[in-house]
């Protein structure tokens, strides 16, 4: 015997009834039921810094990538908009319009991306001088404060959609960053991990004219400061030094033969030598113009100075990025070359003799 057709439990959606369709009433959430916890987005995160080493650490728990030469930035994609913060905590969103647009294009997700703002040359290498030229590194004096061609080489993800990731191991954060940027085309790019012996990788990096390499402990959480979880190996030593004066010259570009430099030793600013190479004509003239506008200290230098050079002393305000091959036994720069100016806002980056690197 054939069974009669089963009567539907709910009425069909299309029906000839005058009454409007109504859904079931929404039940109030049971307060005893646990809710998914969301972490507030940090207003700012003090960046993790790489410790300078002379040789790679042992072990297979390190991941390696290229060291980029630019400005450390953190991209905060928030419901209220995009903020791009420098290492010192300054808001430079308006200086990186391309990176800001890329952060908006990533989608509605809230996130904090840790990376380096750079300008690449034709060979794909980060060019600090080109970045400085694009930014107008002397501040508002240059009238050019944006780097429209700058990109962010992203290497860490600290926050994503309501979840603070700083307690997660680096390999987890890295995986989430790769997924976030997968297939994305814009001014935020992934700083690629390179599976190679670090000694061989450093050798290749130096041959290609790169600044060096960075290693990160795959199992480490994100710790602000120089904890040793991140390390760096450089092809050429470099650092940021305060300009304390210059040696005048009527023959050299810009009217000076060399810049006189200072670094910190404890709380004191001390003289560490001079730099007289690496200047192009336009940059030398620009530097002299800037120094002419600084407050002068004609009689007493801002550092203890026992040399015999004819020097013009200036208020230590401008910060020069310097390449150097080595130090003399009495801690003076040897074979130094000028790279460009750092923003005066980044005074925290001035070289410290106690640690052998920037703080």
UniProtKB/TrEMBL annotation:
Top EC group: ligase
Catalytic activity: ATP + (deoxyribonucleotide)n-3'-hydroxyl + 5'-phospho-(deoxyribonucleotide)m = (deoxyribonucleotide)n+m + AMP + diphosphate
InterPro entries, per the entry: ATP-dep_DNA_ligase (IPR050191), DNA_ligase_ATP-dep_C (IPR012309), DNA_ligase_ATP-dep_cent (IPR012310), LigD_ligase_dom (IPR014146), NA-bd_OB-fold (IPR012340)
GO annotation (BP), single: DNA recombination
SUPFAM superfamilies attached to this UniProt entry: DNA ligase/mRNA capping enzyme, catalytic domain, Nucleic acid-binding proteins
Region of interest called Disordered, as start-end residue ranges on this chain: 1-41
GO MF annotation list: ATP binding; DNA ligase (ATP) activity
Keywords, sorted A to Z: Ligase
EC number(s) per entry: 6.5.1.1
Biased composition (Basic residues): 1-12
Protein name: DNA ligase (ATP)
Organism: Rhizobium esperanzae
């Amino acid at each position: 015997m054939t069974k009669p057709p089963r009567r539907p439990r709910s009425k069909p959606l299309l029906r000839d009834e005058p009454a409007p369709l109504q859904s079931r009433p929404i039940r109030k959430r049971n307060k005893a039921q646990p809710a998914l916890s969301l972490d507030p987005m940090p207003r700012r995160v003090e960046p993790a810094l790489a410790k300078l080493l002379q040789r790679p650490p042992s072990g297979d728990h390190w991941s390696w990538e290229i060291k980029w030469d630019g400005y450390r930035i953190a991209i905060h994609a928030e419901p209220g908009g995009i903020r791009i913060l420098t290492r010192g905590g300054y808001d430079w969103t308006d200086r990186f319009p391309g990176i800001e647009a890329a952060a908006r294009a990533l989608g509605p997700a809230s996130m904090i991306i840790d990376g380096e703002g750079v300008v690449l040359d034709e060979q794909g290498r980060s060019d600090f001088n080109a970045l400085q030229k694009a930014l107008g590194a002397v501040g508002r004096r240059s009238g050019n404060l944006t780097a429209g061609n700058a990109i962010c080489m992203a290497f860490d993800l600290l926050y994503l959609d309501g979840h603070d990731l700083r307690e997660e191991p680096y390999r987890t954060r890295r995986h989430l960053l790769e997924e976030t940027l997968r297939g994305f085309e814009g001014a935020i790019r992934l700083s690629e991990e390179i599976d190679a012996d670090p000694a061989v990788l450093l050798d290749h990096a130096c041959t290609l004219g790169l600044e060096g390499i960075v290693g990160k402990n795959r199992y480490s959480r994100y710790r602000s400061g120089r904890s040793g979880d991140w390390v760096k190996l450089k092809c050429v030593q470099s650092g940021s030094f305060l300009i304390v004066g210059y040696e005048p010259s009527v023959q050299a570009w810009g009217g000076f033969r060399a810049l006189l430099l200072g670094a910190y030793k404890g709380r004191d600013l001390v003289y560490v030598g001079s730099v007289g190479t690496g200047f192009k004509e336009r940059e030398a003239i620009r530097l002299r113009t800037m120094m002419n506008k600084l407050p002068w200290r004609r009689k007493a230098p801002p550092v203890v100075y026992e040399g015999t050079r004819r020097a013009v002393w200036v208020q230590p305000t401008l910060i020069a990025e310097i390449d150097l091959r080595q130090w003399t036994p009495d801690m003076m720069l040897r074979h130094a070359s000028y790279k460009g100016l750092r923003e005066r806002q980044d005074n925290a980056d001035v070289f410290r003799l106690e640690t052998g690197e920037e703080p």
